[in-house]
Design goal:
Elements: H1 2-6, H2 12-39, H3 45-94
């Protein structure tokens, strides 16, 4: 795996999950348990697997929305305003 990654190998799906991984970490429990509560216990193994797949898809979708609507704008905000904050911080340290 390390050799593939060092050689420049890239898989779009892995890159996508890498981008939304933190949001997925934050939301998967809330979304997952809420959906499982709403869906209810299924009678067959196949139905339970379908429910799990649906929860993974919805949880990933929520994570993606969070990435687009929260993480990217806040990152842009920080890049724009960081010099001003650093300047203020350096003035405070000199006092």
């Amino acid at each position: 795996m390390v050799g593939l990654l060092q050689s420049g190998f890239s898989l779009g799906l892995l890159a996508f999950f890498g981008k939304v991984s933190y949001s997925n970490y934050l939301y998967h429990t809330l979304v997952g348990y809420s959906l499982f509560e709403w869906i209810g216990r299924q009678q067959t193994v196949a139905s339970n697997l379908i429910a799990v797949a649906a929860v993974v898809v919805v949880s990933t979708w929520v994570a993606y929305l969070s990435y687009i609507l929260v993480e990217l704008p806040s990152g842009r905000f920080c890049k724009v305003h960081e010099p001003r904050f650093l300047l203020r911080f350096s003035k405070l340290r000199r006092r």
